[in-house]
UniProtKB/TrEMBL annotation:
A Pfam cross-reference name: LysR_substrate
HTH lysR-type domain location: 11-68
Family: Belongs to the LysR transcriptional regulatory family.
Any single GO CC term annotated in Swiss-Prot or TrEMBL for this entry: protein-DNA complex
Molecular function terms from GO: DNA binding; DNA-binding transcription factor activity
Entry keywords, A to Z: DNA-binding, Transcription, Transcription regulation
Protein name: Transcriptional regulator
CDD domains: PBP2_LTTR_substrate
Length: 297
């Protein structure tokens, strides 16, 4: 006789893998190729779940498919289960924790991220790292798609749906050559800022969004002459005399040939976080990365 409340025919990992792969790859055939099974097998897994729970999980649009709202809410838990299962399999195969694995990392400020990634790699050379330089909003999009494990992002708070730790709090400032007329004047006013030719990060940058929001509150419209994908590119153009940059003070180093000029605005304080999905916090590689951030703790 069955035990009380025992679920008959519980969900299988094969079903969850099929469902997650279909959403991530955008088609049944691509999911089947990735997993290494036939397309009918993938379809049977997905349609079997939909029929069992009387719920549409996959929406079709032409030749592509996507998650319905019902499935979208469950994807973080499904991905956490699959990641934890992968960890367990790896530990059983290698008979020791962290014998193998990988971390996909996105970072928006290399001066803050790369030293911490390097320290982790030195402690865990067995973990494969894939690191990509991206704007904060692009990193958050990768989390939504399940394409990233850890992100270094800039904002006022930890983004909704994620967990994380504060790495540094820093001012958003003007970056200019040391001989710039404003360099010796201390904090500059918004009226000064409005007259400057500005070099900024792309529109999806967390630093840029915070700066422009503060400028709007101050009633000015910044004159951005060029948007660039990296701080290195901005620093090069600052040195060439094209304009001045907007940056986090923490990302300006001596080798950039720039000085930080504060803006007279108390709201221009940026927080830089390392974040991960809440449901992924128990994955061994992520736990190890978190521990590496505070090695003395």
């Amino acid at each position: 006789m069955d035990a009380p409340n025992r679920i008959k025919n519980p969900l299988s990992l094969s079903q969850l893998r099929a469902l997650e792969a279909v959403v991530r790859r955008g088609s049944f055939s691509a999911a089947a190729k990735e997993i290494g099974v036939s397309q009918p097998s993938i379809s049977n897994h997905v349609h079997g779940l939909e029929n069992r729970f009387k719920t549409r999980l996959i929406a079709k649009s032409g030749y592509s498919v996507s998650a319905t709202p019902a499935l979208e809410a469950l994807l973080p838990k499904i991905r956490a289960i699959l990641a934890l299962t992968s960890d367990l399999e790896s530990e059983l195969l290698h008979q020791k924790e962290l014998a193998a694995g990988e971390l996909r990392i996105g970072y928006s400020t290399y001066q803050l991220a790369i030293p911490r990634i390097s320290a982790f790699m030195a402690r865990h050379p067995e973990i494969t790292i894939e690191a990509r330089a991206l704007a904060t909003s692009d990193i958050l999009d990768l989390f939504d798609n399940g394409d990233i494990d850890i992100g270094f992002v800039t904002g006022r708070e930890i983004p909704a749906g994620l967990d994380g730790e504060l790495l540094v709090q820093t001012r958003i400032v003007i970056a200019a050559p040391a001989d710039h007329p404003l360099a010796s004047k201390g904090a500059v006013s918004w009226k000064n800022v409005e007259t400057l030719p500005l070099l900024q990060r792309e529109s999806s940058s967390g630093t840029r969004k915070m700066f422009e929001a503060a400028a709007t509150v101050a009633g000015i419209k910044p004159k951005t002459i060029l948007a660039l994908g990296s701080w290195g590119s901005i620093a090069t153009l600052i040195r060439s005399g094209i304009g001045v940059g907007i940056a986090m003070e923490a990302e300006i180093t001596d080798r950039d040939g720039c000085v930080a000029i504060p803006i007279d605005s108390p709201s221009l304080i940026a927080n830089h976080y390392v974040v991960w999905q809440k449901d992924m916090a128990g994955v061994a590689a992520i736990e190890a990365f978190r521990a590496s951030l505070n090695p003395a703790a």
